[in-house]
Give the backbone structure.
Amino acid sequence: MTPSSRVAALGVHLPEGTRRTVETERELRERNPGLKLPTGLIARMTGVETVHVKPADWQASDLAVAAAREALAESPEPVDLVVFASASQDLVEPATSHIVAAKLGIDAPVMDVKNACNSVLNAMQVGDALIRSGQCRRVLIASGEGPSVAVRWEVRDHAQFISSFPGYTMSDGGAAIVLEASSDADAGILETRFRAVSRHWSIGTLPGGGTMRPHDLDAAFFDMDGRGLQRAFLELGPEPVLELLAARGLSWQDFSLVAIHQVAVPYLPPIFERLGVPMDRTIVTVGDHGNLASATLPLQLKLARASGMIEAGGLALLIGLAGGISLGLAVVRL
């Protein structure tokens, strides 16, 4: 019998250090006296009040390790594979998963999976496939997002401020999921689907560290068209989600939780309205925690579980939106 893969454990680490949006605006004004930044603009435009900031001596791997330790404490059996899944990384080489495994003291094969804010969802797809094929029994997926290092504090002009704008709401954090083989075909990851519209890849970039601009110091910061990203996501339309529900004979009432990646509060109502998602099935995290990139969906899962919103046997739909751009969907029974 082909096994399925279930979520055996979940961990999330949010750094204690935070930065309020009013502090972000104050620092931008101090560093850029010529910048005409209306008071409260960032909060009004994004709905983000606070972001998490990692300690200065922490790497992306440290955030992933902190979350992984929480998950492994919940389900401590050995793992067959460590997957580091994040938009961030410690180094170009080697794979950050090696560093995570070394810090955890795990002797197992490793790999990195990277697809911007859909990295964790894609890693779940990979882990699920390896478990179903019998190659692995337990897979640790660990994410460490440290986008605060790519925030541009000194801007050349207003145009550069606008292209740097999404970075001011990015947040540091870690997340971890342990997948394990299960004989229950109606448990765990029931289905995943992905779609990419790659012609939009240039809308949001962090160019440094690659072959395009290998030694350009200016490439170490976010360069994003926020409105362009919103238009590109809306262009994807509700069809992929609604087709998934129809194929499985599900309605929104079947889900205890609909977790969706969040970059700004004002972006959410149009997306929810087009999908028809009831607001009582969602958790809005971006206002209090900022854009946590690929750690966003695990955070919503953890909060839903902690509040009793979703219990054992409950059904969750994870909707990932990522630069590139891509859409990821996962139907998961906890």
Remarks:
- The domain at 4-182 is CATH 3.40.47.10 (Peroxisomal Thiolase; Chain A, domain 1).
- The radius of gyration is 19 Å.
- Residues 196 and 326 are 4 Å apart (CA to CA).
